[in-house]
Cytochrome P450-dit2 (Apiotrichum porosum), 568 residues
Amino acid sequence: MTKTSIPLPHTVAVQDLVPILKSHWVAVFVGALVAAGLYAAVQGAYETWQQNNTTSNLPGPAKDHWFWGNLTQVIATTPHAVGSGWLDKYGPTLRFNTAGGKTAVLTADLTAINYMFQRPDIFVKPGGARLILNEALGKGLISVQGPDHRRQRRVLNPAFGWRQILEMAPMVFDKAYEMRDALARHVASPDLSSPSVDRVPGTRRLDMSKISMQVTLDIIGLAGFGYEFNALTDGYNELREAYIGAIKSAFDLNPITMFQIIFPMAGIIPTARKRDLDACRATAQRIGRQLVAEKKKNLVDMYSGIAKDTQVDKDSLSLLLKANLAPDLGPEERLTDEDVMEQISTILFAGHETTGTSMMWGLYHLAKNQRVQDKLRDEVLNLGQECRSFDALQELPYLDKVVHEILRLENPAPVLSREATCDVHIPLATPIMGRDGTMIDSVHIKAGQLINIPTGYVNQWPEVWGDDAREFNPDRFGREGIPSAKVPGIWGNILTFIGGPRNCIGHRLSVLELKVLFYVLVGNFKFEELPSKPEYKRTWMVIERCVVVGEEEAGPQLPLLVRPVVDI
Ligand code: HEM
């Protein structure tokens, strides 16, 4: 019997499909995109459900809004204020609702925080934060993860040791005295714009937020990469404009940007914000490449004997270029010129607004606490008004306490976000009661779970710092048990510079800057609240800034009365 093959009625040869596919390629392409989108949405929804389900027993606030969860409260005030309220109410570990049906864990538990700090490959910066950092700064130390981070950190570390930072002290003193002279000129100039009540003879109403940002920009330019911004003299500077433009565009959190943060895949949408950002980045990169080329040439000239009598410049960029040439580094461990160039925007971003904001809030507290200011002035004037020795400043115990207290109470970035890369149990020092009444001694989370670390809350936690933890009182340092060694911070047992392998590489420079700046400021001027008593309010843009109520449009400002010390 011969077998005859009977074609199945619905079988179509592949070649028959080609013309159909060709004539319908747009429809097929769109169909494939929709299918991929649907798959991603279902997969995403399933993962979110799993994450939410796993943490559903944690205490925390109910949703305020069907889409924005509890974020409406956060946007109305600051993440630090809202988070602190929840932590006071629900205990040290809780869960709240973010946008799009997702949830976040918030924990001030010191064991949990230390566990996360020590495992930066498991607890990474969330996708949305990485998107913004990459857009604004490229792939510098603060943006990269895993092996790239370890490779960069190894080369950068030697540029930020105490010995290297101490060599920058003379330059920081120079800038601090330039600021003093600029303040003295302002005070001596006629005040035509302040309300008459604030025109007090022998004083001048000055925006100390602006001056804090100017002097710290000048310092980071010179200390970071030997570059003069001349911000204190207010001259035009191309890199400064590009940097300010990039930060402004990057943090322009309009609804499309918010959508892109929540759903990072949407980052490919071209927007005016992205266009502006790219233009600013192109300028910053052009100047950055030029700086790297010049510094590299200096090093090569020095090592090859062309410029025998010169020394390596003392700025971080020169020092890291030198470290990058170390013979014990393998070729795959060295940074490329592009890697080095990206560190310029990173150092600017990470080292400028943070220190500037700490200086500004420090002045705010000193103006409100004249007793502390007078005590500090009495101490620093023992060194006269022209000291240039950082060793001498290190001997001043009250200056040390004041700087600790400023950095404790005014953590510029008081809430950190992380995202788990795998399922993990986070141990807790303090067990908490779940919604079902059972005790929880470790938090189980799924991969992709968002976790917030309220470093600012821990810095102000009465359990750690005493009942007056939310007040400005430098004398708390030195009380028995304070600071507490239980707090896992890299500096001063506070969490301002965090801890673990991703701690703030610039913390020593920042402490040096603040000591020098407050020595010069308080030794030469008295800072007072304005007689018109404006109301100040905190705003948040990753960093907590100060605005005047009713003048929010003017942006961050801290107007204070400044009085030269000779007139006191
Ligand atoms: C008061 C001043 C400062 C504060 C409060 C501060 C705070 C921080 C914090 C909280 C982080 C961790 C961010 C995260 O992982 O999410 C960090 C990282 C970093 N900071 Fe600072 N910082 C300050 C000053 C500086 C200065 C002066 C520099 C540079 C000269 C600097 C450079 C960096 C860099 C490069 C990183 C990334 C480190 C890494 O991921 O390995 N910071 N800083």
